[in-house]
Amino acid sequence: MKNALLLFPFTGLLVLVMACSKNNSGSEPTTTTEEEKLPTVIADKVKDITTSAAIFFGKITNKGGAITDRGIYWGKEANPTGNKISSTAYRSDGEFEVSIKELTPNTTYYVRGYATNSRGTAYTNDVQFTTNQVPGAELFTDTMFAAGATTVFVAGKVVDAKGITQKETGICISKNADPSINDTKVAAPGSVQPFFLRINGLEPATEYYIRSYSTNIHGNTFYGQNVKVSTIQKGNVTYTLTQNPNPTDEEKAAYARIKVAFDEAVAYYNNFTSITKILNVNYVPGVPTADANINGTIRVGSNTGYQRTGTALHEIAHAVGVGQHTFWTNTLIKNGLYQGGFANSILRFMTRTPAEALKGDNLHFWPYGINGAHEDNGQEMLYITNVLIMQGMKKDGLPSSY
Questions:
Q1: Which first-to-last residue range defines the signal peptide (predicted)?
Q2: CATH number for the segment(s) 40-130
Q3: Is the CATH number of domain 236-395 3.40.390?
């Protein structure tokens, strides 16, 4: 019993010592992870620079943790904080790229890359680059033109746009060389190339300079070569319509139609030719269509289809020499072809057809001779081209009288 009593305290002491020994050894060991850091990112280069775009190349050399975003900030000032673009093109080795678009030509920009993880965002140094200057469009101004007294028809085209979208093209005109868009200009409709334009409001018998122009989407304007053009002296064609002093209703109606036709025809002659001629117009119901003599006499019949502007122009052409003068049959028409250079040049220019040529016989010419009511479509360009050809024929030597 004594031994047992002695052992118990000893045993308790032993247990106590052992318990104290465990507590002094510290807490249980725990698992630890490496602390995340800011990523390290560098700018590689900016390349593929154009007038309006560039590509930034960067690289994350140390992620520091899981990357949640990467890309660029760009602008016209150093250390840009606006115009953020996240990259959608990157590789596992940390390389990434970003396309920058809608830039202004010939402009300096700054760009810096960034990379973001849970600790924050790190940036590269700025990379400075300058977009390319806009190349000038190559333009052509046609040296051929067709002129009236206050109007000139001109043409041109954009030969090479240099890959830049052109917003507006056309012709500018001035009395001085090197006209610009700050002078008078006429823009071509849409993107039609080549362009053929009409310029109104000019002074008769006056020299002008024209040149084609083109303004691109960046606001840059470029010009073609200078071409000198001249308007013509205003024509002096007049007419008198002989009328019955006591007209019937039928005659009144015919006179009214004939007057409208010859008012318009004479206006075309005086604005688009320099011809001088006095005409005496008569309403003669027995005439099947209409006819004319080089002495200026014109007769119009009762067929209303011939009491129109096209017929009036056709008969005035006869009155000023077409099919009425020996110069027509002996010189200007041979083997069915018109021989004069000026009228053919005008025809080719106005129709934009280089191989076009006038044809004719002892009385008429075609195309644009309006040789019958069926050819009168009432279109202004038909009438203008007809009288411009007549102006060319006068320059080719066709006499207006014997």
A1: 1-19
A2: 2.60.40.10
A3: yes
Element (H, E) at 376: none
Contacts of 115 (CB under 8 A, 6+ apart): 39, 41, 60, 63, 67, 69, 70, 121, 122
How many Cα neighbours within 13 Å face the side chain of 172?
22
Residues 227, 209: contact at Cβ < 8 Å?
Answer: yes
Indicate the residue type of 18: M
Instruction: In whole angstroms, give the CA distance from residue 183 to residue 178.
Output: 10
Q: Which residue has the tokens 């001085």?
A: 176
**Reduced to 3 states, what is the DSSP secondary structure of residue 138?**
strand
Print pLDDT tens along the chain (402 aa): 344 433 334 344 333 333 333 444 444 444 434 568 999 999 999 999 998 999 999 999 999 999 999 999 999 999 999 999 999 999 989 999 999 999 999 999 999 999 999 999 999 999 999 999 999 999 999 999 999 999 999 999 999 999 889 999 999 999 999 999 999 999 999 877 899 999 999 999 999 999 999 999 889 999 999 999 999 999 999 999 999 999 999 999 999 999 999 999 999 999 999 999 999 999 999 999 999 999 999 999 999 999 999 999 999 999 999 999 999 999 999 999 999 999 999 999 999 999 999 999 999 999 999 999 999 999 999 999 999 999 999 999 999 887
Please answer whether residues 82 and 29 qualify as being in contact, where contact means their C-beta atoms are separated by less than 8 angstroms.
no
Distance CA 172, CA 199 (A): 9
The matching CATH number, chosen from 1.10.3380.30, 3.50.50.60, 2.60.40.10, 3.60.110.10, for 138-230 is 2.60.40.10
Q: Smallest Cα–Cα separation from 199: which of 255, 145, 160?
A: 145
